[in-house]
């Protein structure tokens, strides 16, 4: 059988390059490139799309929408689409590309024509919250707050250049209008009816991420122990997968960079039972499971290579 074919629209950008590099380690996929001089030419992009099985969009939202319109012009010849932008993440016609999010999600991705790749922060937040909401431990309308810190690579080329030139602050909170673009996907796929407060931040390290959710245990229905939250998370994720739930015994701190270069996602429940306080923490590589690692996982599923 011929190798499945793939085109990365936006392959010269940060995300496109990362995916391309990772695909070099995946045998059995033929990656086709467009003449750089024609990379923004709609007709050339449409022709390229017509020649491949899967197109991966690594473009700003507006350009991603333009590409989807071009693909739609191809009718039955349209390739499958994996979109890395935020344009379609909560569109019900698209499948959300977080394979471990729910039983059957990997199969849904494998069978879908259009898949949106999750944002980095939502990957951590949804992984922590969805199992607890589904188990009834966190009510859908619970007033959830999510704090997170990312390496500066999450901010794209301009932020990378500012940090590497030494002109960016060592650490800052941002998104302080409380309208970050990731909130709708976090809320939707966690199953929350009340909009969570999301406080992102960025620090002077290239790569790595922590996402944390503080909880007053006595404010939850039935006032559960922290161990019950941990048990619900452990029961949700199959052993040996990319998502693991780890004990916290004796740990009093956690840093964001330990999973860099991997596609792993670690979840922990820190707690002080005497105070009835818990802190859910997700750790991931914002460029791994938070971006191109997840994209390659979805590419494999969509091309039947997983
Ligand atoms: N979790 C995830 O899946 C992540 C997704 N992203 C998303 O990926 C997308 C790309 O981000 P990033 O790689 O950081 O951005 P970059 O700016 O690094 O890359 C975007 C690329 O798209 C090209 N481009 C822009 N407009 C067009 C067009 N109309 N036609 C063809 N090519 C075009 C750009 O070319 P030029 O520079 O010449 O304009 C550039 O090469 C964004 O939507 C971002 O939100 C980002 C990080 C993580
Ligand atoms: C540090 C930083 O600025 N991070 C980015 C998110 C990166 C990401 O994954 O966003 P998309 O996949 O949705 O593009 C931000 O907060 O906008």
UniProtKB/TrEMBL annotation:
Pfam families: Semialdhyde_dh (PF01118), Semialdhyde_dhC_1 (PF22698)
Annotated catalytic residues: 120
Keyword NADP (UniProt): yes
Keywords of this entry: Amino-acid biosynthesis, Arginine biosynthesis, Cytoplasm, NADP, Oxidoreductase
Residue intervals of the Semialdehyde dehydrogenase NAD-binding domain: 5-109
Catalytic activity field: N-acetyl-L-glutamate 5-semialdehyde + phosphate + NADP(+) = N-acetyl-L-glutamyl 5-phosphate + NADPH + H(+)
Pathway: Amino-acid biosynthesis; L-arginine biosynthesis; N(2)-acetyl-L-ornithine from L-glutamate: step 3/4
Gene Ontology CC entries for this record: cytoplasm
PROSITE patterns hit by this protein: ARGC
InterPro entries per the UniProt record, alphabetical: AGPR, AGPR_AS, AGPR_dimerisation_dom, AGPR_type-2, NAD(P)-bd_dom_sf, Semialdehyde_DH_NAD-bd
GO biological process: L-arginine biosynthetic process
Ranges annotated as spanning the membrane: none
Location of the protein in the cell: Cytoplasm
Function: Catalyzes the NADPH-dependent reduction of N-acetyl-5-glutamyl phosphate to yield N-acetyl-L-glutamate 5-semialdehyde.
HAMAP family: ArgC_type2 (MF_01110)
Name assigned to this protein: N-acetyl-gamma-glutamyl-phosphate reductase
């Amino acid at each position: 059988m011929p190798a499945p074919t793939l085109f990365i629209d936006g392959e010269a950008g940060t995300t496109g390059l990362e995916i391309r590099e990772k695909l070099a380690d995946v045998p059995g996929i033929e990656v086709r490139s467009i003449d750089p001089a024609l990379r923004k030419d709609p007709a050339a992009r449409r022709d390229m799309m017509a020649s491949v099985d899967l197109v991966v969009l690594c473009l700003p939202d507006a350009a991603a929408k333009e590409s989807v319109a071009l693909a739609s012009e191809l009718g039955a010849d349209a390739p499958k689409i994996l979109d890395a932008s935020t344009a379609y993440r909560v569109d019900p016609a698209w499948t959300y590309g977080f394979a471990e999010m729910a039983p059957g999600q990997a199969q849904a991705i494998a069978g879908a024509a259009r898949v949106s790749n999750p944002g980095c922060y939502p990957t951590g937040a949804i992984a922590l919250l969805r199992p607890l909401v589904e188990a009834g431990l966190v009510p859908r309308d619970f007033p959830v707050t999510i704090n997170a810190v990312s390496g500066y690579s999450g901010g794209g080329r301009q932020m990378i250049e500012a940090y590497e030139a030494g002109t960016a602050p060592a650490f800052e909170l941002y998104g302080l209008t409380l309208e970050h673009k990731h909130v709708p996907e976090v809320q939707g796929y966690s199953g929350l009816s009340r909009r969570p407060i999301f406080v992102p931040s960025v620090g002077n390290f290239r790569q790595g991420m922590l996402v944390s959710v503080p909880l007053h245990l006595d404010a939850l229905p039935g006032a559960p122990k922290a161990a019950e939250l941990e048990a619900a998370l452990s029961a949700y994720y199959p052993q040996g997968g990319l998502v693991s739930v780890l004990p916290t015994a004796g740990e009093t701190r956690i840093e964001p960079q330990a999973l860099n270069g991997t596609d792993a996602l670690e979840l922990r429940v820190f707690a002080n039972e005497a105070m009835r306080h818990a802190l859910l923490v997700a750790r991931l590589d914002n460029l791994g499971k938070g971006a191109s690692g997840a994209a390659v996982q979805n590419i494999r599923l969509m091309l039947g290579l997983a």
